[in-house]
Design brief:
Chains: A alpha/beta, B mainly alpha, C alpha/beta
CATH class of the largest domain in chain A: Alpha Beta
Structural class of chain A: alpha/beta
Number of helices of chain A: 10
Helix content of chain B: over 70%
Largest interface: B-C, 37 and 37 residues
Largest sheet of chain A: 6 strands, mixed
Radius of gyration of chain B: 19 Å
Strand order of the largest sheet of chain A: 6-7-8-3-9-10
Number of helices of chain B: 13
Number of domains of chain A: 2
Distance between the termini of chain A: 42 Å
CATH topology of the largest domain in chain A: Rossmann fold
Helix content of chain A: 25-40%
Shape of chain B: globular
Oligomer: heterotrimer
Largest sheet of chain B: 2 strands, antiparallel
Shape of chain A: globular
CATH superfamily of the largest domain in chain A: P-loop containing nucleotide triphosphate hydrolases
Number of strands of chain B: 2
Chain lengths: 254, 287, 363
C-alpha cells in the first residue's frame, strides 16, 4: 500500500537557483508532520509544488494513490488538500464569516446565471452554508468575531481564521505554512491546541514550523530539509538532538 | 417636461453603464478604460439591426447584449494575463482601436458623420417616441439591471468577485476558478453595456463616435467613483448627480463670454474637492 | 397694502407687450476641443443680436439668446434642446457641428422648433428635418462647383485627393470624387492624413507618383505647412481646395502661390469687422460671419412676424423664411429649399492675396 502523501524526486530550479533537489518524502495519514529547515531550504516551494501553484521540473506527487501531476490548484483542493500562506492572504475587507464562506465548496449561485434566475434557491442554499460557516468559526474559537472585518481582527485571530478558511474547503490534508509564527502566550497555545484537536478529528497535517519547542510538542514526525533536499527524517526528539542538523539549522551558531 | 424626462432617460441609461463599469472596476478590480467601446458596439448593432434588417426593438437589444457579452469577455481576457496597471494600457489600446473602427468604417457606422435616423422602438404596436414614453422603457431596463446586480451581489458569486479583487491567488488556493469568475463578470458587464447601447441609439435616433470615445469611458469611471464604487446605490446615484451637475452650474450667473469655461472649471474643482473630502464617493466604498 | 398691490398689478398689466424680450436659444460647443469653433459661432450670434438691440430691438422687443454648452456631444444636445424648448420656450435654436445637429433634427420636427445651422456642412443635414434651416450650402454643393470648375474651366482631367481622416474630410473626399467623376474627370489616388499631423510629405510623394493634373486637398488645419511641403517635393500639379484655404496664414505664405479654391464668401464691410474686433478681440472670421448672417436672417423673419402681428413660433418662422426666400444681408442667401444657396467664388492665391477669379451666383 502506498503512503498517504508521497513526494518523489522533485526538482525545481528558478534560473540558476536549485530550489528543490531530488526531494522525496512521505506523510502518514492522521499524523502531524513538521517540515523544518533553515531559511531557503525549499519548504514553501514544496507546498507550492504539492498544491499545484508551481509545476516541478521533474518528480511526482501522489495523494491516496492518485497522481497529482499536472493538476491545477483548483483540482487539488477537490482531492482534499488545502494550504495556508505564510503571509496569510486573508480577504481583509470581508468579514471573518465571508472568508470562511469563500473556502466552502459547491455553492449554489457562485455563477451569475443561477444567482439571477434562481434567486430563492440561491438564498436558501446560502442560508444553510451560513450555518455551516458559523460552525467552522465556532470550532476554531472565532464565533464572536464572525461579523467583524478581518482587518480589525488581532493577528492571532487572523492566524486561526486562515485555518478555519481551509477547514471550510473540507480538505483532509492541511498544509500549514508557519501557523504559529509571530504568536506568543495565549494565542500560541490556542493555535497549538487547535492543531491537536484537528489531528484528533482525523485530519492529517503537514506544518512548516520554525519554533523547535512547538515542533517538539506537536510533531509526530519531522522532515528536515536543506538546500531543497530531504536530509533527515524521524521523531522530533531525535532530529532536535542531532548536533549536525542543529549546526545546519542555526548556521553554526552552536 | 420633456427636458426632465430626457434627463431621466439619459441618467437611467448611464446607470446601466455604471453597473457595467462598477462590476468590472469596482468589484472585480479589472481597471477597464474601454467600457464606452462596448457600449458603442451595442448602440451601433442595435441601430444596424432595426434600420437594415427591421429586427424588432427588443430582439435587437437582446442580440446586441449577446454580442457585447462575447466582446467584453474578449477585451477583458488580457486582464487574466497582465495585471493591474498593465491592463490599463491594454484597455486603452482597445478603446483607441474601437474609436478608430467607429470613425473609419463608414459603411457600417456612418463613420465620423454618425448614423442618423435610428427609429424609435415599436413594442406591441406602440411607438416609444416621446421622452415620457421612452422613460418607461429606460426605467424598465434600469430596474432589470439593478435587480440583477443586487441578486449577484448577495449571492456567493458576488462574494467570490470581491474575494478575487482582494487576492486572486488565495481564491485559487480555495479551489475556485478565477478565470471562470472573471469571464462571468465580464459577460454580465457586457450585457449591461450592450443593452445600454441599444437604448441609447433608439432614444437619441442619432449616434456618432463622440459618445463612445475615451472621454466617455473616463466619464463612466468618474460616475462610478463619484457615486460610489462597489455598491448598487453608488452606481445609481452617480449618473443622476453627474448629469444634473452641469444644469445646476448653469444656474450660476456668469458673464456669458466666459460662462462655459468658468463652469467647466468649477466642475473640475468640485470633482477634485470631492475626491479629497469623500474618496469613497457618495454611497460607496473606498476604491 | 392691498391698494398698493392692486396698483402694482395694474401697472404690470398696463405694461405694453413690447417690453417682453424675445428669447432665442443656441446649443453650441463652448467647452471641450470643439469650443474653438463654438465660441466663434457664439460671438457671431451675439454680435448680430447686440446690433439689433442697440437700435431698440424688433418692434420694441429686445432679443435675448440663451447659450447652452453641448461639448459637441449628441446626448447633451438633445437634453439642452429640450431644456430650451420646454423651460425657456424658444422658437429658434441655433446649432453648429453636424453630429449634434443631426441628433436634434428629429426633435425640431416633432416640436416644430426652428433649428438654424450656420456652420456645419455635412450632406446629411440637407434632408434631416424640414425645420432644420442651413444658412450655408452643404459641402456637396460647394464641391460640385469646384469639380465643375477644375474639369471645365481649368481643364484638369485627372485628380488625386488628400483628405483629413475625420467627418469633414471623409465627406469632402466622397463629395468631390462623386462630382468630379460625374463631370468626366478621373481620380487617380486618395491618401488620408490625421487631424493635427503636419507632415504631409509621405502622402504627397505617393499621390505625386500618380502624376495628377490637380491635387484636391480637404484638411481643416495645417494648410501653411502643406504649402511649404508641396514646394519641397517640387510638385507639378495644381493644388485645389475649399473654403478651408481662406486661412490668413496660408494666404500670406508665398509657397501657396497658385492654390485655387472655392469660398462661401461673406465680405464684411470694413467698419463691421473693426467693430467686431473691438468688441470681442478676435477677427471677424469665417464662423462669426456665417453666424452673424444666420442670425440676421432669423431676426428679419421675426421682424416680418412682429410687423404682421403674428405670434413668433417655429412654424411661423419657417413659413416666413421660405416666403421671404431671398435675404440680402452681408451676403445674398436664397432658400429654394431649407438649405441655402449662396454665392460661391472661385479664388486663387496670387502674390500673397486671395483673388476672386470667377463668381458663381446662387442658383
Amino acid at each position: 500500500m502506498s503512503a498517504y502523501l508521497q513526494v518523489e524526486g522533485l526538482n525545481k530550479s528558478f534560473g540558476g537557483l536549485q530550489a528543490l533537489r531530488d526531494c522525496s518524502f512521505t506523510v502518514a495519514q492522521g499524523r502531524i508532520t513538521c517540515l523544518v529547515g533553515p531559511n531557503g531550504a525549499g519548504k514553501t516551494t514544496i507546498f507550492n509544488a504539492i498544491t499545484g501553484f508551481l509545476v516541478p521540473d521533474t518528480g511526482h506527487v501522489t495523494f491516496q494513490g492518485i497522481s497529482l501531476d499536472g493538476r491545477t490548484s483548483q483540482q487539488i483542493v477537490r482531492h482534499g488538500i488545502a494550504r495556508t500562506f505564510q503571509n496569510l492572504r486573508l480577504f481583509v475587507d470581508l468579514t471573518a464569516r465571508a472568508n470562511v464562506l469563500a473556502g466552502m465548496q459547491d455553492h449554489v449561485g457562485e455563477e451569475p446565471f443561477t444567482a439571477i434566475f434562481r434567486p430563492f434557491h440561491t438564498a436558501r442554499a446560502l442560508a444553510a452554508k451560513q450555518d455551516a460557516a458559523m460552525a467552522v468559526l465556532a470550532h476554531v474559537g472565532l464565533a464572536a468575531q464572525a461579523d467583524m472585518l478581518v482587518r480589525n481582527l488581532s493577528y492571532g485571530e487572523q492566524k486561526l481564521l486562515c485555518i478555519a478558511r481551509i477547514l471550510a474547503t473540507g480538505a483532509e490534508l492541511l498544509l500549514l505554512d508557519e501557523p504559529t509564527s509571530g504568536l506568543s502566550g495565549a494565542a500560541l497555545s490556542d493555535v497549538m491546541a487547535l492543531l491537536r484537536r484537528l489531528q484528533a478529528e482525523g485530519k492529517t497535517l503537514l506544518v512548516v514550523e520554525h519554533n523547535t519547542r512547538v515542533v517538539q510538542q506537536i510533531a509526530d514526525d519531522v522532515l528536515f530539509l536543506h538546500q531543497g533536499h530531504l536530509i533527515a527524517q524521524g521523531a522530533p526528539a531525535d532530529i532536535i538532538a542531532d548536533p549536525k542538523l542543529a549546526e545546519i539549522y542555526f548556521g553554526g551558531a552552536i | 417636461m420633456d427636458f426632465f424626462y430626457t434627463y431621466i432617460v439619459l441618467a437611467e441609461i448611464y446607470v446601466l453603464l455604471g453597473l457595467s463599469t462598477n462590476l468590472l472596476v469596482g468589484i472585480v478590480g479589472i481597471f477597464s478604460v474601454s467600457q464606452a467601446a462596448v457600449f458603442g458596439v451595442g448602440a451601433y448593432l442595435t441601430a444596424f439591426l432595426v434600420m437594415q434588417t427591421s429586427t424588432p426593438f427588443l430582439v435587437a437589444v437582446l442580440l446586441s447584449s449577446i454580442l457585447c457579452i462575447g466582446l467584453n469577455i474578449l477585451v477583458t481576457l488580457p486582464s487574466l494575463r497582465v495585471s493591474g496597471d498593465y491592463f490599463v494600457v491594454t484597455s486603452f489600446g482597445i478603446q483607441l482601436l474601437a474609436t478608430a473602427v467607429f470613425t473609419n468604417w463608414t459603411g457600417g457606422t456612418g463613420g465620423a458623420n454618425g448614423l442618423p435616423g435610428v427609429p424609435a422602438p415599436w413594442i406591441a404596436g406602440h411607438e416609444f417616441v416621446e421622452p415620457s414614453e421612452f422613460a418607461v422603457l429606460a426605467t424598465g431596463g434600469m430596474a432589470l439591471g439593478c435587480i440583477a446586480f443586487w441578486l449577484i451581489m448577495r449571492a456567493p458569486f458576488g462574494a467570490l468577485l470581491r474575494a478575487i479583487r482582494e487576492d486572486e491567488l488565495a481564491v485559487a488556493a480555495l479551489g475556485k476558478s478565477v478565470l471562470r469568475a472573471k469571464v462571468s463578470a465580464a459577460a454580465l458587464a457586457g450585457a449591461f453595456a450592450g443593452s445600454a447601447g441599444g437604448l441609447y441609439a433608439s432614444f437619441l435616433s442619432f449616434i456618432d463616435p463622440s459618445s463612445f470615445d475615451l472621454d466617455a469611458s473616463i466619464f463612466l469611471l468618474t460616475m462610478v467613483v463619484v457615486g460610489g464604487a462597489r455598491t448598487l446605490a453608488g452606481s445609481v446615484i452617480g449618473p443622476f448627480v453627474l448629469l444634473a451637475l452641469p444644469q445646476i452650474l448653469a444656474l450660476i450667473d456668469i458673464p456669458s463670454s466666459v460662462a462655459a469655461a468658468a463652469r467647466q472649471l468649477i466642475y473640475g474643482l468640485l470633482l477634485i474637492a470631492f475626491m479629497l473630502f469623500r474618496p469613497q464617493g457618495l454611497l460607496g466604498e473606498k476604491l | 397694502m392691498l391698494r398698493i398691490s392692486a396698483f402694482a398689478l395694474a401697472m404690470a398689466l398696463a405694461l405694453p407687450a413690447w417690453a417682453q424680450p424675445i428669447r432665442l436659444g443656441a446649443v453650441l460647443p463652448l467647452t471641450g476641443p470643439a469650443a474653438v469653433v463654438g465660441t466663434q459661432e457664439q460671438r457671431g450670434i451675439q454680435f448680430a443680436v447686440d446690433e439689433v438691440n442697440a437700435k431698440g430691438g424688433i418692434g420694441g422687443h429686445l432679443i435675448e439668446v440663451q447659450f447652452e454648452d453641448n461639448q459637441a456631444k449628441p446626448d447633451q444636445s438633445v437634453l439642452l434642446f429640450n431644456k430650451l424648448v420646454d423651460l425657456v420656450k424658444v422658437p429658434v435654436v441655433f446649432t453648429g457641428y453636424s453630429g449634434p445637429t443631426l441628433a436634434m433634427a428629429p426633435l425640431a420636427t416633432r416640436k416644430k422648433t426652428l433649428l438654424v445651422n450656420g456652420g456645419a456642412q455635412a450632406d446629411a443635414l440637407d434632408k434631416a428635418s424640414p425645420y432644420l434651416i442651413n444658412t450655408i450650402p452643404v459641402l456637396a454643393g460647394e464641391l460640385e462647383v469646384l469639380a465643375d470648375y477644375l474639369f471645365g474651366d481649368a481643364s484638369k482631367k485627372t485628380a488625386a485627393v488628400l483628405y483629413e481622416n475625420n467627418a469633414a474630410g471623409i465627406a469632402g473626399r466622397d463629395d468631390f470624387v462623386a462630382s468630379y467623376t460625374k463631370a468626366g474627370g478621373k481620380v487617380l489616388a486618395q491618401e488620408p492624413v490625421q487631424f493635427g499631423d503636419t507632415n504631409y510629405r509621405p502622402a504627397l510623394l505617393k499621390l505625386g507618383a500618380t502624376n495628377p493634373d490637380v491635387l484636391f486637398v480637404i484638411i481643416t488645419s495645417g494648410t501653411p505647412q502643406l504649402a511649404d511641403q508641396v514646394r519641397q517635393v517640387d510638385a507639378k500639379y495644381m493644388v485645389a481646395g475649399n473654403t478651408f484655404f481662406s486661412d490668413p496664414e496660408l494666404i500670406a505664405n508665398p509657397n501657396a502661390e497658385g492654390f485655387t479654391h472655392t469660398q462661401v464668401l461673406i465680405n464684411a464691410p470694413d467698419g463691421m469687422a473693426a467693430a467686431f474686433k473691438a468688441k470681442f478681440g478676435t477677427e471677424f472670421d469665417f464662423f462669426p460671419k456665417q453666424y452673424y448672417n444666420a442670425t440676421t436672417i432669423v431676426l428679419s423673419c421675426i421682424e416680418h412676424l412682429v410687423k404682421a402681428g403674428k405670434p413668433i413660433t417655429g412654424e411661423a418662422l419657417r413659413t416666413a423664411l421660405l416666403e421671404i426666400k431671398t435675404f440680402k444681408g452681408i451676403t445674398t442667401t436664397v432658400f429654394n429649399t431649407n438649405t441655402a444657396a449662396t454665392q460661391i467664388n472661385m479664388n486663387r492665391l496670387t502674390n500673397k492675396t486671395d483673388t476672386i477669379i470667377k463668381v458663381i451666383p446662387p442658383k
